[in-house]
Amino acid sequence: MQERFLTTNRGTFKQAKWDGVNRAGLKPLCDFVLVMVDEIADVTPGGIVTTEQAQETGTLGSTTGIIIAVGPQAFAYDKDRLVKWEGERPKAGDRIWFERYAGQEHTGLDGKLYRIMQDRTIAGMEDKEAMALIAAEGEADQVVRRARA
Fold first, then answer.
1. pLDDT tens for residues 32-83?
2. What are the structural domains of the chain?
3. Dist CA 70 CA 86 (whole Å)
4. Taking the mean position of all CA atoms in its chain, how far away is CA 11?
5. What is the phi/psi pair of residue 112, to 5°?
């Protein structure tokens, strides 16, 4: 499988890949969420090599990742804990965006970097329906281009 990159104003990140098994050695409690963070790419798609120190510093500032595990009370109420949560709740396997430097760092049993953070620090998650629609439109454009050629 080809590596996927995410470019932001903070750098180019290798998107974390998850096989569905929590290998971190942590299980979140209460309203906490365990996230595998995206890491700064050691070599960008354009061929730029990133130093080890820049990789570490950039990864600490990462604002994207994949949810690995969710505590039993996470996403039960809004961020102020006053109103019950409505709508889709993020779950393990969802790609999310969260506050910069949110949570506590943890190096998992598998050697990867994780963060355990409160659910209120998560700002959004990838819209899989929109991504599928965009991918389908891209495929349709390629078919049209091939037909014209």
1. 999 998 876 666 667 666 666 665 665 566 788 999 999 999 998 877 778 8
2. 5-148 (2.30.33.40)
3. 17
4. 15
5. -90, 160
